[in-house]
Amino acid sequence: MSPCWKTTCGVLLWSLIAAAHVLLAQEAKRPVPSEADQQQALAFAKEVYGEEYKAAKTSEQKRALAEKLIQKASESKSDPASHFVLLKLAGNVATTGGEADLALKAVEEMVSSFEVRPVAMKHEALTKVAQFARSPKQKEAVAQAAIALIDEAAALDDFDIASEVGKIGQVAAREARKKEGNGRVSRRIPRRESSGGSGKNGRQ
């Protein structure tokens, strides 16, 4: 067998392996649990974590609880409704604590396991968490998250979300008094006229 043929076979083999991993990841995703199942899982979660939820007042306490809920969610993958609800609760707790990284981590965990719309969910999460971010550090985290989400939305030609996220990021960077960050956000916002896109009506 010639070296060239060996190289070609090797490339094809790795391509097949990569494709198999993609297919397995797609097959592993589950539909979002029904509303009835979510309500049942939520009732149980309130029994278990209700007191901690009420006691979490500060950003630090909410961050700790959100991290705990994400961990518990990862241990509940055999129960889709509990897994989904715990991640949803973790995202809500992180959001009201102004913790952008954790709010988006909860979304990422949902995206990896359930058939949801990643960009739309991240947009919703970032929009909400931006309203609760108080400290310069939290606002800078929102600005950094906005940069990543702008790129993700633009890659899908969703210029509406990219533009909306850009505004969120600019405000956060300005309030954090990070002029450099504000500039990075501005440069990330895609220009429709230069890309030829008109935006997508559907959210990804």
Protein architecture, described:
This protein is mostly helical. The chain contains 10 helices and no strands.
Outline of the structure:
This protein is mainly alpha-helical and 204 residues long.
Question: Secondary-structure blueprint of this entry?
Answer:
Elements: H1 3-28, H2 35-55, H3 59-74, H4 80-96, H5 100-113, H6 118-132, H7 136-155, H8 159-175, H9 179-188, H10 192-195
Helix pairs in contact: 2-4, 3-4, 3-5, 4-5, 4-6, 5-6, 6-7, 6-8, 7-8, 7-9, 8-9
Q: Approximately how much helix is present in the residues?
A: over 70%
CATH structural fold name of the largest domain:
Serine Threonine Protein Phosphatase 5, Tetratricopeptide repeat
Output the CATH class name of the largest domain: Mainly Alpha
Q: What is the correct CATH architecture of the largest domain?
A: Alpha Horseshoe
Tally of helical segments: 10
Defining traits:
single chain, 204 residues, mainly alpha, 0% strand
